[in-house]
TrEMBL record, chain B:
Protein name: histidine kinase
Originating organism: Actinoplanes ianthinogenes
Enzyme Commission number(s): 2.7.13.3
Chain ranges passing through the membrane: 17-40, 52-75, 96-120, 152-178, 185-205
Pfam families for the chain: HATPase_c, HisKA_3
Domain Histidine kinase/HSP90-like ATPase: 341-465
The entry's keywords: ATP-binding, Kinase, Membrane, Nucleotide-binding, Phosphoprotein, Transferase, Transmembrane, Transmembrane helix, Two-component regulatory system
Sequence ranges assigned to domain Signal transduction histidine kinase subgroup 3 dimerisation and phosphoacceptor in this UniProt record: 238-305
């Protein structure tokens, strides 16, 4: 894959570059500011970009804004946002265009190289990779007539993993269940949430996220 | 028409009597002690024969003695009656004249232990905590600057309001006595005149009240001083908490990580499996250290606030509160950072309170800017009955309400423990958080207003003057 990396801290940028290269991908640009990020994204059109939320010169949410602007130019441009803290607000903005190809992860997830690269690959393939912390908040959000309350604990954990953007195979591996069991769970979950079941992982994850992202899902 | 006139007349008389009663103690005690003191002092020289010069000196001494007695009596009367009487007079001023004379009494100052081992009661050092506490209570009762102003009011009113309002009833009594003892005409005349005078004598109250009952420059200055002291103390507590959070949390974990890495280094050749296990453990504690740092940072300066400003930060806050929150915002620009931060933490604390105590189903947060004032109101449909915090009192101890208003419910435990009692669901706990907000807002010249009838809805509004 051709990867763009935008991160202002030298150590972390360097580490990310090495990590991505060690998995056999090509880093086409490593930048350290908001404007440079936007330029690199538009010029290189990478297969996936890793972007830090807070970048110079303003140290506000420049990275996030650059990523969103680039996605407006190139719809569905895969971006994995990294941040020291996760906010539902930002997750909502990233998911708003419902095109997939977005990830939003805490910076320290990089420590788990395999999982991080797995998330990056998912995003590059047009999927989603949401941080468990975001998903937990999405699941905990209050709703009128909350159908989530009808889910069993096991169904909830399947739904949480699904919302992170993980495929059925991977969910099965994590929960030590068979894939058949997982697809049974997903069918039940979709029935309970009044969602349309779908075979395509990405579309299914998007349905779940749209559902969770709606402030009041009046079922 | 006539009925109304009679009623007004009666009300005037009643007010005159009430004012006379409210302003009586100081002049009555002073005159009584002075009179009987003079009588008593004069008995010392009943049959004294001495040269004129000596008698002059003795008389001066007598006068001095009487003055001392009067002063002592006045001082004791003031200490015991000034504050309640001034407060009663203020209530009357509000009810009768619509005067809002808001003054603040400093409460009982917090007692803090100094590094030297001595106890500070806000004025001086003491050897034991018990003594310091006793003195703090005494100070609040007798050395409060506002109580001194109340004493001034009692003194001034004693020589202005009291004579004017006490004369008509006394004259009326004299009139009745004269009429009863046969001098009917003059008696009735005096009675009628005194009643007419009595009906409007109460008018002297307003000018004196405006000048001496309300807040004055001194009060405002003192409020600011108090605020400063408060902020200094809360800031110190804040720094201490941050330091402790870093010291006991992240720092300790980093030390532990270093040690496990060293252990792993030693074992890597001999027992690679164990080394791997130790390294995995080290990574887990690095994650925990990060978590701790994150929640600390959230309590000091929430990242969303830095990145996005007040409106979006409040939106993010609303998403994290386990109640349905709608945010309306019409703020043209980002306010100054300190104001922004104070506003943010105020809203955070209010939302936390709603989530904790109100049993609300929906909450509306409204951010607006008008007339150079930034306001944030939090309205909930909960149980209501929230008591307003008093206007910037001094009474919260260190470690009471923190500088950073309240706990933002996001990110688990926040640095800013708004209410001092752990998990406090008591009204007092809710109150101390509100007190923190009020105090923090006051530092910027802002206010916190709470309208919360029992049964709801509750509407809390924080407003701060600022130019955007």
């Amino acid at each position: 894959m051709r990867v763009v990396i935008a991160e202002d801290l030298f150590l972390l940028r360097d580490g990310l570059v090495r990590l991505v290269q060690s998995y056999g991908h090509e880093v086409v640009a490593a930048v350290d500011s908001g404007p440079a990020t936007l330029d690199a994204l538009l010029k290189e059109r990478p297969d996936v970009a890793v972007v830090d939320v807070r970048l110079p010169p303003t140290f506000s949410d420049e990275g996030l804004q650059a990523a969103l602007a680039a996605r407006r130019e190139i719809p569905g441009l895969p971006v994995l946002i990294l941040s020291q803290h996760v906010e539902q607000l930002y997750a909502g903005e990233l998911l708003a265009d419902a095109r997939g190809g977005v990830g939003y992860q805490l910076k320290d997830r990089v420590l788990d190289a395999d999982q991080f690269m797995d998330a990056l690959t998912r995003v590059a393939a047009g999927g989603t990779a949401l941080d468990p912390a975001v998903v937990a908040k999405l699941l905990g959000r209050p709703r009128r007539a909350d159908p989530l309350a009808t889910l069993t604990d096991r169904e909830r954990s399947v739904l949480a993993l699904m919302a992170e953007g993980i495929s059925n195979t991977a969910i099965a591996a994590r929960l030590f269940l068979s894939e058949g069991a997982i697809s049974k769970y997903t069918t039940t979950i979709f029935a309970k949430l009044n969602l349309h079941p779908d075979d395509d992982t990405n579309r299914r994850v998007r349905a779940v996220l749209t559902y969770l992202n709606a402030t009041n899902a009046d079922a | 028409m006539a009925i109304r006139a009679v009623r007004r007349f009666g009300e005037g008389l009643r007010r005159t009597l009430v004012l006379a009663a409210l302003t009586a103690p100081l002049p009555v005690v002073g005159v009584t002690v002075g009179w009987f003191g003079a009588l008593f002092a004069s008995t010392w020289t009943d049959d004294m024969h001495a040269p004129l010069i000596v008698r002059g000196l003795v008389t001066a001494g007598q006068v001095l003695a009487v003055l001392l007695w009067v002063a002592g009596a006045l001082w004791m009367t003031h200490a015991l009656t000034s504050r309640p009487l001034a407060e009663a007079a203020r209530r009357r001023a509000r009810r009768w004249l619509g005067l809002e004379l808001e003054v603040a009494y400093g409460g009982i100052a917090p007692v803090t232990r100094m590094a030297t081992g001595y106890w500070w009661d806000g004025r001086e050092y003491h050897k034991s905590e018990r003594e310091a506490r006793r003195r703090a209570v005494m100070n609040a009762r007798f050395h409060d600057p506002q109580v001194r102003w109340d004493g001034l009011w009692a003194l001034v009113a004693g020589v202005t309001v009291f004579p004017v309002t006490a004369l008509p009833p006394v004259a009326a009594g004299v009139g009745v006595w004269l009429a009863g003892s046969g001098r009917t005409v003059i008696g009735v005349l005096i009675l009628v005149l005194s009643l007419v005078a009595g009906a409007s004598a109460g008018r002297i109250f307003r000018p004196v009240a405006v000048r001496f009952l309300g807040p004055n420059a001194g009060t405002r200055l003192r409020e600011l001083e108090t605020l400063q002291a408060d902020l200094t103390q809360t800031q110190a507590a804040e720094l201490e908490r941050i330091e402790r959070g870093l010291h006991d949390g992240a720092q300790a974990r980093l030390v532990a990580m270093g040690m496990s890495m060293q252990a792993a280094e030693r074992m890597v050749d001999a027992d690679p499996e164990a080394a791997k296990a130790i390294l995995a453990e080290a990574r887990a504690s690095s994650r925990a250290a990060l978590e701790e740092l994150r929640s600390l940072v959230r309590g000091i300066n929430p990242p969303v606030l830095v990145e996005r400003g007040l409106v979006d930060a409040v939106r993010a806050l609303a998403l994290d509160v386990p109640v349905e929150v709608t945010v309306h915002a019409a703020v043209p620009a980002r306010p100054e950072r300190p104001v922004e931060s104070a506003m943010y933490f105020a809203v955070a604390e209010l939302l936390t309170n709603v989530a904790k105590h109100a049993h609300a189903t929906c909450v509306l947060v409204d951010l607006g800017y008008a007339d150079r004032t930034l306001t944030a109101s939090v309205t909930d449909d909960g149980v209501g009955g929230v008591a307003s915090p008093a206007a910037v009192p001094r009474s919260s101890g260190a470690g009471g309400s923190s500088l950073a208003g309240g706990s933002s419910s996001a990110g688990g435990s926040s640095l800013a423990g708004g209410s001092s009692s752990a998990g406090g669901s008591s009204p007092a706990a809710a109150g101390s958080g509100l007190l923190g907000i009020a105090r923090r807002m006051a530092a910027f010249g802002g206010r916190l207003e709470i309208d919360s009838p029992v049964g709801g809805p509750t509407r809390a509004t924080v407003s701060v003057p600022c130019v955007l």
